[in-house]
Input
Amino acid sequence: MLSYRHSYHAGNYADVLKHLVQVAILDYLLQKESPLCYHDTHAGAGLYSSSSEQALKTAEYEDGIAKIWHSDSESALIQRYLTLIRSLNPEQQLQFYPGSPKIAALMLRATDTIQATELHPSDFPILQSQFSHRRFSRIENIDAFTGLKAMLPPLNKRGLVLIDPPYELYTEYQDVIKGVTEAYRRFPQGCYAIWYPVIERDAIEAFINGLVRTGIKKQLRIEFCRSADCKGFGMTGSGMLVINPPYTLSALFEQTLPELQRLLGQDGCHWQVSQLVGE
Ligand SMILES: C[S@@+](CC[C@H](N)C(=O)[O-])C[C@H]1O[C@@H](n2cnc3c(N)ncnc32)[C@H](O)[C@@H]1O
Output
C-alpha cells in the first residue's frame, strides 16, 4: 500500500524540524575533507512546488516554511536552511521546496555520495531524473529496509542515514527498530536520523523505548510539538532520534527550538532535547 504522497505535506512544520536537523548534521560532517555518504531510505520526490494541486489542497506549508520564509530569526541554522531554499527560489517568492535528497544535493560536494531508495511508482522517476547527471549517486526503486541491507556500509566509511517513513502502517514502527538495528551492525560509525510523528504520546514513548532497548549507544532526541499533546486529533508534533549525533547538535537545538516555538508554535507548544543513551 503506497497511498502516501509527500507533495501534500512538503514544507510543513514537521519538514522544517526534520530538515533543520539534516542540515545541521551535514554541515558538521562537511567540516572534514574526506568524502561522506548520505543515505536516504524514504526519499520522496525530491522537489515540491507550492502551486501543485496537492500543495494547494492541504496548504500545510503555510504553517511551516511560509511562516519562516521572511523570518527575522538570528539563528544561524535557520538562516543557513533558508539560504538553501532561496537558492531554488531566486525571485524570492516561495515556489519550490526541497525534499531531503535535494537538500543533500544542494549541500554535498561532487566527491560525496548520495544514495536513496523510494518505492512510489510516480515519485521515483521524478526523484531519479534529478540525479541522472550526478556522478556519485545511487537512486533505487526498492524497499527502504532492503536498501539498508543492500547499500550499507557505504564505500565512504562516514555519513548520515536519514530514515523517514510515512508510518501509514503501525508495523512500520517495528520495521524501523529492526532496520536500524541491522543497519547499525553494518555501519556502526554512521550517524542515523530517524523521524517520528507525535500522534499519541503513549505510542510514541513505546517506540522511543524500543529504540533505546536496542542497546545502541549515543542516542539524542530532538522533538518539537507545535501544540499540546492530544489524543485523537492527529499529529501535534514530531521529532528526530539521532544516533551518533555530532557533539554540537544538542546545544545547537537548545538554541534553535525556542526560535521555532516563537515562529511556528501554537497554544501548548513544547519541545525537548534529551540525551537518551550516552557513551
Ligand atoms: C515522508 S515521505 C519522505 C519525505 C522525504 N524524506 C523528505 O524529507 O523530503 C515518505 C516516502 O517514503 C516512501 N515509502 C513508503 N514506504 C516505503 C518503503 N517501504 N520503501 C521505500 N520508500 C517508501 C513514500 O512513497 C514517500 O515518498
